[in-house]
Amino acid sequence: MPSTASISGRLRAIGPALVLAAVVVGPGSITLSTIAGGTYGYQLLWIPIAATAFMITYTWMAARIGVVTGETLFQATRNKYGERTAQIGGLFGFLTILAFQAGNNAGIGFASAALFGGEPQLWAGVFTVAAAGFLWLPDLYEKIETLVKIVVGVMLVSFVGSLALVGVDFGQAVSGLVPAFPNRSAIFLGLGLAATNFSIAAAVYQTHLMAEKDWDVDQLTEEGFDSIIGIAILGLIVMVILLTSAAVIYGTSKSAFSAQGMATQLRPVAGSGAFYLFLTGFFFASLSSLVVNALIGATLLVDGFGYGSSMESRPVKLWTMVAMGIGLAVVLIAGESPVELLRAAQALAIVAFPLLGFLVLSIARDEALMGEYANSLTVDIIGFLGYLAIIGIVLNYLREVASFL
To answer: Which GO cellular component terms, listed alphabetically, does the Swiss-Prot or TrEMBL entry include (predicted)?
Structure first.
């Protein structure tokens, strides 16, 4: 495939990282950004910036692994660390994503009910069935890339539009760029916020997207551009939500602990336009996460056990439907994603996240596998700092799981 050297060509080529951005900006990241802005104002604004830098780095490392070796992460893992390590990574990656999936099923239900009326469980069922049918369309990657470009565009317009209607205190916002935690609770909230933006499972999926895109080493420049721009858009959306919450809620007696609550608080401040803009953004964020999150989990599982892991493979489609179906069943029974399931997801992530991060970092810096495309010193340093962030995230998960027992 020839290189698309022009800026316009590179912009048209952006896609794989946007797929990741579309799944990472979901109900969880929107909710925690809302809570962070409403509770601490602009003081935690630096966290999504740092998390975005780590996400770009790990996405770029994963992309280079896929492009240079021509293998997925778990295919390269089998060669370097053996079959069992790949299977453990695939199994725990799938189970972790599966446990988080119910939040996406619930999110699309609540967003639809707020916009169109009706029961959240009914809407969750409608969109889950529609998403399952979508999986069986031909040339699925092209369909998903088109979908996420629309979704990300709508989210940008919706969330930036909401912020424009309420305004920003730029002086206070600039002060939030200085890394600091106002108190001990802010540390735990900050780690949770970082976890929703720096998704190592999504970064790993970039090795698969390189195969779907059919890119090789001639497209490394385009892939670098894709990783930076696509994931930067993710960071921008999360920052905009945090800024909106800080402008509307912080310093008042109001509170909001969900996207629906945030939209409700916007209405008296900026009118119905802001209310519907924010809910529209939440709806599309939930829709893309519903599809792509389950697809990532299924792909990791199938690839971990050595089966064909392209989007067109039958095992990937079937396991994606299983993940969606289980998520829907939880919502229909419990009405939402219960805290017990969240704690189970966190417990599984304690194994999955450090392992996946280690595999990406160790393989990307292996000169025997990567040759001249192995990590530079700068990428190694940022990657190591990102790995420390992963350890911080799982330690926070361990704390929350222990407090629940």
So the answer is: plasma membrane
CA 215 to chain centre: 22
Half-sphere exposure (Cβ direction) of 248: Cα atoms closer than 13 Å = 31
Do the domain assignments include residue 2? no
In 3D space, the residue among 386, 17, 50 whose CA is nearest the CA of residue 224 turns out to be 17
Inform me whether the pLDDT recorded for 4 exceeds 50: no
Token code pair at residue 171: 């002086």
**How far is Cα 188 from Cα 400, in angstroms, rounded to an integer?**
9
pLDDT at 323: 94
Range of the domain at 180: 7-404
Residue 153 predicted with pLDDT over 90: no
Query: Among candidates 321, 264, 314, 318, which has minimal Cα distance to 290?
Result: 321
Number of domains in the chain: 1
Query: 347: which 2 tokens?
Result: 């417990």
Element spanning 127, H or E: helix 120-134
Place 313 in a pLDDT band, splitting at 50, 70 and 90: very high
Is 185 a domain residue?
yes
What CATH number is given to the structural domain containing 261? 1.20.1740.10
Angle subtended at Cα 112 by Cα 107 and Cα 117, rounded to the nearest 5 degrees: 135
pLDDT tops 50 at residue 177: yes
Tell me: the pLDDT tens digits for 200-222?
Answer: 999 999 999 888 887 777 767 76
Cβ-contact 363, 373 below 8 angstroms = no
Nearest to 42 by CA among 156, 164, 180, 160: 180
Whether 47 and 257 have beta carbons less than 8 Å apart is answered as no
177: left (phi over 0), alpha (psi -120 to 50) or beta: alpha
In a domain, 1, yes or no: no
| Whole-number Å distance between alpha carbons of 340 and 157 | 35
- The per-residue DSSP string of 294-327 comes to HHHHHHHHHHHTTS--STTSHHHHHHHHHHHHHH
User: How many residues does the structure list for the chain?
Assistant: 405
Task: Please tell me the distance from the alpha carbon of residue 31 to that of residue 256, in angstroms, as a whole number.
Answer: 9
- In the block, residue with structure tokens 């050595």: 306
